[in-house]
Amino acid sequence: PAQRRDLKARAAELIKARGAVLVAHYYVDGDLQDLAVETGGCVSDSLEMARFGRDHAAQTLVVAGVRFMGESAKILSPAKRVLMPDLDATCSLDLGCPSDAFNAFCDAHPDRTVVVYANTSAAVKARADWMVTSSCALPIVRHLHAQGRKILWAPDRHLGGYIQRETGADMLMWNGACIVHDEFKGLELELLRREHPGAKILVHPESPQHVVEQADVVGSTAQLLKAVIELDAREFIVATDNGMFHRMRQAAPGKVLIEAPTAGNGATCKSCAHCPWMAMNALQGVIDCLEHGHGEIQVDEPVRTQAEGCIRRMLDFVA
Ligand code: 13P
Ligand code: SF4
Fold first, then answer.
1. Pairwise CA distance, residues 200 & 236, whole Å
2. In what order do the strands lie in the sheet containing 235-239?
3. Which ligand is nearest to the Cα of residue 43, counting in written order?
4. Whose CA is closest to 300, among 66, 70, 81, 74?
5. ipTM value
6. How many whole angstroms from 274 Cα to the centroid of ligand 1?
7. Nearest C-alpha to atom 3 of ligand 1 is from which residue?
8. Ligand 1 contact via 225 beta carbon (within 6 Å)
């Protein structure tokens, strides 16, 4: 703990000295989340991270999260320096949707409006008409469906399936999944709910259908946090990455938070619901990127300008 305190103080010093701001996701290490809050940065979901980085005056953004979050920041703010504590921090959805195959999929269906989830590479976004995050996917697809558009959706099949069931839109889907949320088990959740009859069930929509169907609230990480604070219940069963519990406990100290099951036979694997790529973000990485300029995000200009359109369309829609 003393060493972590020293690292945190050093990172805070460097953030100030370099005129930088730390933009963190709820799944990263708790010390990094606290550091972001304490130094005037933000900790939030991927929509708010993109908005905050774009609007902040700092010319250096340190993005603690996974690669697509750093890329989105750079796409929206090309003149800013965007650094990440570890450039190898990626996402199974991004890895599972390579741009060549994705372009071929789009070429085969030219009549469809291309909607991609934020968790994709800049090259995939460059081909899309719209980008969405889990917090705004539903109203945006509802809007497109009302205009009579047919949709090509990528890459998360669970989020896509949820949106399709809710909106009735015609959606042709890529077959991707988040390796963390895909592990939540519907049957075991049913059993756990019986043990906690008063608990509210909060679910991130990257989870499988049987889990989503049991939810009281389905939403992005920021929306799930809001639900814990606002809902009138003592117990919550939460199906999302367990990095989220740090902020939930701080924001709602009197509430009991229970991890949704990720393993069969009622056995919850405590470390299963944690993204290995989010876990690569560390205080030392923040220090290294600010001290030595490690981990700078670069996006080729033609790709960046192409990708910018779909992100801006989303931000204008939610504004
Ligand atoms: P949110 O936009 O809900 O924060 O989701 C990002 C993510 O990667 C969830 O796994
Ligand atoms: Fe990607 Fe899942 Fe990790 Fe989120 S939790 S970054 S969707 S692998």
1. 5
2. 217-218, 200-203, 235-239, 256-259
3. 1
4. 74
5. 0.98
6. 12
7. 220
8. no
How far, in whole angstroms, is CA 268 from its chain's centroid?
23
Domain membership flag for residue 264: no
Query: Residue 5: exposed, middle, or buried by beta-carbon count in 10 A (0-12, 13-18, 19+)?
Result: exposed
Residue 114: name the closest of 68, 147, 162, 151 by CA. Answer: 151
Instruction: Clarify whether residues 84 and 98 are in a common domain.
Output: no
What is the number of structural domains in the chain? 3
Would you say 2 and 25 are in contact if contact means Cβ atoms under 8 Å apart?
A: no
pLDDT in tens, 149-204: 999 999 999 999 999 999 999 999 999 999 999 999 999 999 999 999 999 999 99
| pTM: predicted TM-score of the whole model, two decimal places | 0.96
Host domain of residue 75: 2-89+278-297
Q: How far is residue 218's CA from residue 299's CA, in Å, rounded to a whole number?
A: 33
Give the C-alpha separation, 301 to 316, whole Å.
22
285: its two tokens: 């990485």
Considering the domain architecture, whether residues 10 and 83 belong to the same structural domain is answered as yes
